[in-house]
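Blackboard transcription, Thursday session:
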Amino acid sequence: MTPLEILIAAIEGSPAPRIPIFCNLLDQGVRLFDLSPEQYYASGQHVAEAQLLHLKKYGHDNVWSLHYVGKEAELLGCQKILFAEDGVPNVEDLVIKTLDDIAKFEIPNDITQHPAWESIATCMKILQREVGATHPICAYVTASTTLPAILMGMDQWLELFLLGPYDLRDELIRKCSDFVRQHLNALRTLGANVIIYSTPFGSPYFLNKTQIIRDVLPWMKRDLEGGCCEDLVYYCGMAPFNNVIDLIFDELKVNKHYISPLADLTEAKHLINTRGLSCGVIDDIKMIHWSEAETRAEVKRIIEIGKPGGHFLFGTGVMPLSIPETNIRAMLAAAFEYGSWT
Amino acid sequence: MREIKMLETYIQDYNEAVFETDKITALAVVNKALESGITPEDIVFKLIIPAVEIMMERIEKDPDSNLAQHFMTAQIAAEVTERMLEKFAIPPTVIGKVIIGAAHGDLHSLGKRIVIGCLKSLMVEVIDLGINVSAEKFVDTAVTEQAQVIAISAMMVHTATGESGSLKVRALLKERGLEEQIKIAVGGAPYRFDPELYLKVGANGWAPDGVTAAKIIVQLINEVKP
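(Written on the board underneath:)
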């Protein structure tokens, strides 16, 4: 079976040789070329080629259209990204500097015509050509209630979100929601078939359930045009969200959940059961200092919780650049070993 | 006796409002306390500080407390304290001084804003160096200002664990023989995922959220102060 067929089998609960094993090694790609991070990320070809090389080297199941989260801010007018030699790029220029900027803030008519889209399109075309028929191609979309955090800074956004002026807050979310809808369409058109819908404000770690239902859920529905989206994975930026899993099933009809390493996976698996796909995620920040044996033991623990009954995927979180390569190999070897059905 | 009972009720009402992230009600409780004759000094020392301390305990014990509650705890406490300080007959004694900022390469400011709000309400003087702060600036400012604690916020793994962040601050303190006089506190998302990470980056303490970070920082101040 191809990785794409293995993923479909896990979603449907049908027989497969093993569980799907997802891994993101985006930042690790920089080191495969003699380039600065800025030069590397500017080229969709490099981002695609690095992933194909990693796929050959490690044998995991998926690739990514994502370059870095700040790309969305660039598509919305961000002029400067702070690149780091040892980690992820960071939004340096805030698009919305004062509340007055919200009225002037405009979503591009067609983000695929934006210069920042070019490298994503190039990357996707290569991935689609090379592995589109066999491997899931993941994309990342930030929800409308979270997107303002990378446009104006999290503290300014949380203040506006909680304290208002609420008409201004809603105007900004509405514009962001328009962007999300356009972004989803553009990524699907390019061939993305697993969309990570990143919605930290949809996590009880950020807001209480009442606030989520009142202030976030309607916007998530708007982002997703109210309908069920078979390719969507609910993800809260590594924050736990077990308390809203039922709500997401009922209200958004999203049935694939990327469970935080900080959440109780046993509880999450029980809640999701065979209704959808549970994704057990390793705490890859601990992998920086773990031994290979500790890494293996954690993979075993996660898969032993999630695998029984099927409908389970093993995945990674942020995969920091400082994780030793031996631990990446140990993690994937253990995932293939313990994730096998044969 | 009656005043103590009244204050307890105000603390409870205030904290319930903060826990519900209801700023309007929280400020109304403070105004009601003022109108009932409680002095601005007592508002701060007998209402706000105990309320923040209770909130610290509550947030520490409650795994379901959320970021909105942490933010509002700090935001409201800082705002009320600032308003009350203007009305104080004699300026209050500060309990210590902290230098705070986001680590080199880190542009996130929410965490430190929560910490600053709580610290100010606890009568800790805070010097905010902003974001993307070099290790040299942290240490030089701590020396000039005679601060007891350097608090470093890092929201990304490389800014938490990299050579230019807390590790370098530790190295500079060691090089200058300042490790007994100045303590390091760290906080931010990576530390929540690896609770032992603070030791690996040479810090003396950490906290999983901004509100309990203020408690840890006050403890570190007390360790240093004669």
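Lecturer's comment: The interface with chain B takes residues 82, 84, 86-88, 90-92, 153-155, 158-159, 162-163, 204-208, 211, 238, 243, 261-262, 283, 285-286, 288-289, 317-318, 320-322 of chain A (CB under 8 Å).
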